[in-house]
Amino acid sequence: MQSPNPHIYDGDYLDLDYRTPSLPLFDSPGGSLAGPSQAPGGTRRLPLLQSKDWDSDFEDDETNPTCIHYDIEWKLQLRKGRLSKLAEITEEDLTLAPSAYWDRFLSAELAKMVASKVPSPEHEPVETTVVVSVDKRSERNLRKQFPGLSIKWKAIEDKIQSWSLLFCEGHKLRLDICFIYKAINQVTQLANAGGRQSRRGATGRQLAARDRLLAEQEDTSGSRPVWNDVYEVFHCTGVPCVNAGFYCWRDPVSKKHFKLDTSLLNKLVDYAEEGGLLRNHDHVPETIRERIFRQDQENLERKQLKRKRTDSLPPINISVSCPGSHDEAQQDHLIGAHTTSAGASVGFRRRAADIVIPMPIDRAGIAYCEWLCGRVESDYWEAGFRQAHRITMEACFDLKYVYQVQDVAFFTEKGVALGIALSYIGDIPVWADTLKS
User: For residue 35, what pLDDT is reported?
Assistant: First the structure.
């Protein structure tokens, strides 16, 4: 047997490397990536740069990047009954990992923004929400919520890292961060001071809520809040306006009073809180004036349309007769007849066969009740209609048969006011006719 050729291993093609092979390592958010790694398909998986790998003068190659790039849009919001946005900042084309960027830049920028934007007294962060997204529809966003500023960056950076291949394909990565603050020791409840009676009705509840908010803000800040000054400017005395006790804007040209709802008042408060001058009605900015005019016109058009529909409805005859009169013989023809305490009989003369309600029976009852409540402003009336509706639903009555055979006493004996019961029964065909238009 021949011995092996001693020169067979000569040459460079069999040079051996006895060093330990390097492996791509993925560290925690506080660490770094060893460098670009290979994905199973051969595509590079780019790293997120941590502080030790990052240089402020670093400029990556746009056509052949060596690390992941992403954008951040962060907002500062103040919670004071409702959320108000105080600042919104966008940082583009970042290469430093989010945890490191927070430590080196964003936390300081946030503190500076809070000091300049959040009114005194001291405020504290309530929660932080983070949304990680990529501009590819098939990929779901990652949404996280954290108490205060205790952000767990690992899950966020892991999600960004998982989209490395998408970034290499040209997709944009984005972080949306919202920092929400509130006043320290903010009062959540306030006793009814001075023994005042509780206010009833929607307006009364709004005024009571306003008083509570005013008291807690004054207690918290030791100063008068801006919104209360705005409310006082636009509080209507009722001379010559009919909106006494409400809030109006008086047009300096036409002298007409325009009633202000909550949305308009909020716009005025926001304008004042942002530094706008608002000491009298002449100071209302043009943008809000246009909104007031537009809302007034829309309200007028709705009233005209409602009046037009009502005028086109067929009349309903309501007969009232006293005992012993010649109408007594006609009692059998009255629908829903009811004898009042004075001995008079009240009923309706329209046949149930004429009523067509094109919806399921149970939904019809709900829709009818909401329609009735929408025609009144009194909480007492609304409660009466809802009570009548509840009685009807518990008895499983179709509205058509409520109108045809149901005695008004069926409702009054269960505590429903007579007028409410008459309206609840008598307005069924009126509502049914509105469904045809």
Answer: 54
**185 torsion bin: left (phi>0), alpha (psi -120 to 50), beta (else):** left
Q: What is the pLDDT of residues 313-357, one digit of tens each?
A: 556 555 555 555 444 444 444 444 455 444 444 455 455 556 788
Q: Which residues contact 365 (CB under 8 A, 6 or more apart)?
A: 389, 392, 393, 399
Where residue 403 falls (left for φ over 0; alpha for ψ -120 to 50; beta otherwise) is alpha
Question: Six-digit token pair at 303?
Answer: 């009233």
User: What is the DSSP pairing of strand 345-348 with strand 142-147?
Assistant: unpaired
How far apart CA 33 and CA 39 sit, in angstroms, is: 14
Q: What residues are paired with 125 via a beta bridge?
A: 181
Q: Encoding tokens for residue 33?
A: 């990536």
In terms of pTM, does the model score above 0.70? no
C-alpha–C-alpha distance, residues 55 and 176, integer Å: 24
| pLDDT for the residue numbered 406 | 64
SS3 assignment, position 389? helix
Q: Which residues of 243-256 are buried (b: 16+ CB within 10 A; e: fewer)?
A: eeebbbbbbeeeee
State the Cα–Cα distance between residues 259 and 295, nearest whole angstrom: 10
Quick one: CA dihedral 397, 399, 404, 406, positive or negative? Answer: positive
Provide the residue ranges of all domains of the chain, joining segments of one domain with +. 37-183, 200-309, 318-434
